[in-house]
Amino acid sequence: MVGMTTEPPKQTAKEPKQEQQKEQKSEKTSNKQEAKPAVAQPKEKKEEPKKPEEKKEDRVKKEEQPKNITSEQITPKGGLGDTLDVFEKQYGENAGDQEMGRFQNDYILPMFLDGKAWNIKIQFEATNQKARSMKEALTVAQGFIPKDAQKVKEYDQPEMGRKVIEYKSELLK
Predict the structure, then answer these.
(1) Which residue, among 85, 90, 75, has the nearest Cα to 171 in the 3D structure?
(2) Distance CA 93, CA 156 (A)
(3) All residues at 6 or more sequence positions from 69 whose CB lies less than 8 Å from its CB, including other chains
(4) Are 102 and 95 in contact (CB under 8 A)?
(5) Three-state DSSP class for residue 168
(6) Residue 127 carries which DSSP code?
(7) What is the overall mean pLDDT for the chain?
(8) By C-alpha distance, which of 46, 82, 84 is closest to 63?
(9) N or C: at which end does the chain have fewer Cβ atoms within 10 angstroms?
């Protein structure tokens, strides 16, 4: 099995931090108000109308790819940074959803964030050639990385039983 990952977009990573800051500010404000002697007041119960539960598959059908996403292919065969549309054109029908794709009988498993593939697992076990040499695995992986990717470093992780090869790509920014 081969896995590839990019870092999630920085704007996405900042959003939870902003929410935490808002919560902390509101907590500080409410703590200041609690410091005053207060007369116990009964809490009002606000009943919100119940919404019918929505199944994940219904939610996924309603979701659309973000409007600012280009479907220009940035990898040789469809891979990191490419959209779901590119994967469907290159590998056929998606047996998964818009967050986690499943292509070619679970041989290619991309995960999407903000409409682009940020993690891909290639499962050789799902093919008729279950074992591959390192050279064969690297040749397959090359089709999934951006065209402009430059190798940054390479190292082994013996405790995880894997080799890590890091690349840098301007197309993923």
Answers:
(1) 75
(2) 35
(3) 83, 114, 115, 116
(4) yes
(5) strand
(6) S
(7) 76
(8) 84
(9) C
Q: What is the pLDDT of residues 108-163, one digit of tens each?
A: 999 999 999 999 999 999 999 999 999 999 999 999 999 999 999 999 999 998 88
* Rounded distance between C-alpha atoms, residue 171 and residue 173, angstroms: 6
DSSP state of 113: E
Q: Environment class of residue 167 by beta-carbon count within 10 Å: exposed (0-12), middle (13-18) or buried (19+)?
A: middle
Backbone φ and ψ for 80, nearest 5 degrees, come out as: -55, 130
Give, in order, the Cα–Cα distances in Å from 20 to each of 14, 24, 145, 162: 10, 6, 34, 36
pLDDT at residue 12 above 80?
no
Which amino acid, residue 110? Answer: P
- Among 77, 134, 81, which residue's Cα sits nearest to residue 103? 77
State the residue for tokens 């935490």: 20
pLDDT of residue 173: 82
Q: What is the pLDDT of residue 72?
A: 87
Amino acid, res. 16? P
**pTM of this structure:** 0.62
φ and ψ at 151, to 5 degrees?
-65, 130
Range from 4-13, 27-36, 152-161 carrying the lowest mean pLDDT: 27-36
